[in-house]
Design brief:
Blueprint lengths: L3 E3 L2 E5 L10 H18 L9 E6 L5 H14 L3 E7 L2 H10 L4 E5 L8 E7 L8 H13 L13 E4 L3 H9 L6 H7 L2 E5 L5 H11 L3 E5 L19 H10 L3 E5 L6 E4 L9 H13 L7 E4 L5 H8 L4 E4 L3 H11 L3 E4 L3 E3 L9 H15 L3 H6 L5 E8 L6 H11 L4 E3 L4 E5 L2 E7 L5 E8 L3
Parallel strand pairs: 3-4, 3-5, 4-7, 8-9, 8-10, 12-13, 12-14
Antiparallel strand pairs: 1-2, 2-6, 5-6, 10-11, 14-15, 16-20, 17-18, 18-19, 19-20
Helix pairs in contact: 1-2, 1-4, 5-7, 6-12, 7-12, 9-10, 9-12
Length: 447
């Protein structure tokens, strides 16, 4: 499997021949390039050193990868705050909470267990933008980095969890109606695919007064099923929700930035509707209209609920950094991606399953409805998500340009692949940033 490089970092299968997978050499090279970029922005010396927050999901390769990154950053003259096992949004929040200059998350998100990756953050706890990412890729490619003398080596500032601080911040949000949620005494099944979500999601739910049934919540990195929170991977939790008589099920991916729900009858709420349901609740609680943002591959349902409440909707290119940029540009009160990623700026600009769970339960509790009844009240669309494995030698850009020309008379958006819009539906074709595939998403009001 080829090593995949993008502005957010690098990812690949761990081990194998250099240049083909994510090897220790790749890890050190890329961490050193990030360190060089960071040190160019922050004075390095005996008294002032950059600080980086480091966290990882529970993949079995995580300790090895994190240790290499930690040692490399120390060699670059950078201090490290090591959170150990931590979700991506927890690391993002810790960057600002610890007043650090950047962060590294060791996770391959929804990819299978043999994959791992480095996700890079700036001093705001947000993913690097295109310009910053390309600079680091160039530094790594040229091996344009250096290490400090022994007198200037960085150090481990602390080894501590930031989970409690993250949960406290979520609980303190005005729209998290903990009192009403506690009165409902929800029974919730959690499937955290044996990663870090098995630590933080049950802890948050118990703070909200829920009875928790843990399924795959041991953070040992042995994924019990494909870790992507899609319907075909949620058969086990659907059965467990029905068997235990639970009010709902909560599913997160290995680094807890994607969130999906299961209704009390075992039916999938649909990860596309995670953001829609949460956004509708947030918009309903505002004193006036609010704007929202999602990416081009996300359901039109968010647009519909936003307009119904008097707000304006905008679409961004796929990728958290692009959605965040559009949210800041439009002053959006909530946004995210249809893959179950909820971004709530009142907490921080990052996809965060913890805030998604808390806001969803607040919406559910205040509605006095069941999970399936809440879902039934949202706009109805049907989506098809497909992908094609890339064959070596295929010119994807040429292929997409051919599609664009074929549908030139329709409404075509080309800021990220090709999206063709019709009155009753759309199709979006794009090359994935994280896997060697072309994604083909389509949606319509009927099948």
């Amino acid at each position: 499997m080829t090593l995949i490089k993008s502005i957010s970092g690098i990812r690949g299968t761990v081990g194998g021949a250099p240049g083909d997978n994510l090897t220790p050499v790749d890890i050190v090279k890329f961490a050193a390039a990030y360190g060089r970029w960071l040190c160019n922005s922050v004075p390095v010396g005996h008294d002032i050193r950059p600080v980086v927050v480091l966290g990882r999901d529970a993949r079995t390769s995580g300790p090895m990868v994190a240790a290499l990154i930690e040692s490399t950053l120390i060699g670059c003259g950078i201090d490290v705050v090591d959170l150990g096992l931590a979700s991506t949004p927890t690391v993002e929040m810790a960057v600002t909470g610890k007043k650090a200059n950047g962060g590294v998350v060791v996770t391959a998100s929804h990819n299978p267990a043999q994959w791992n990756a480095l996700k890079l953050l700036n001093g705001h706890g947000e993913f690097l933008n295109d310009t910053e990412g390309k600079k680091i890729l160039a530094l790594a490619e040229r091996e344009d980095f250096s290490f400090v003398g022994v007198e200037e080596l960085g150090k481990i500032v602390s080894r501590e969890s930031y989970d409690a601080a993250h949960i406290d911040a979520v609980m303190a949000l005005p729209l998290v109606d903990a009192g009403t949620v506690r009165k409902r005494r929800f029974k919730v099944v959690v499937d955290a695919v044996n990663s870090v979500g098995g630590i933080v999601i049950p802890a948050l739910l118990r703070r909200l007064g829920a009875e928790v049934v843990e399924l795959n919540c041991t953070p040992n990195g042995c994924f019990a099923h494909n870790p992507e929170p899609l319907a075909e991977n949620m058969v086990g939790i659907s059965a467990e929700v029905v068997r235990t008589g639970a009010d709902l099920g909560v599913v997160v991916d290995p680094d807890v930035d994607r969130l999906a729900f299961v209704c009390e009858d075992g039916k999938i709420f649909d990860e596309e509707y995670t953001l829609v349901a949460v956004a509708d609740y947030v918009l309903s609680r505002l004193p006036g209209p609010g704007n929202t943002v999602s990416n081009l591959s996300s359901s039109r349902a968010l647009r519909d609920v936003t307009r119904a409440r008097g707000g304006q909707y905008a679409a961004a290119a796929v990728g958290e950094v692009n959605v965040v940029a559009k949210m800041k540009e439009t002053g959006a009160v909530i946004g995210g991606e249809g893959n179950g990623g909820v971004i709530y700026p009142e907490l921080h600009y990052g996809r965060d399953a913890l805030v998604g769970v808390a806001l969803f339960l607040s919406a559910l509790a205040r509605s006095r409805k069941s999970c399936s009844q809440l879902r039934a009240g949202l706009p109805v669309y049907k989506m098809s998500k497909n992908k094609i494995e890339l064959t070596p030698g295929i010119n994807v850009d040429c292929l997409l340009e051919t599609v664009k020309k074929a549908y030139i008379k329709e409404q075509v958006t080309d800021i990220d692949g090709i999206k063709i819009d019709w009155a009753d539906g759309w199709v979006h074709l794009r090359k994935s940033n994280t896997e060697p595939i072309i994604r083909i998403y389509s949606e319509a009001s009927t099948i």
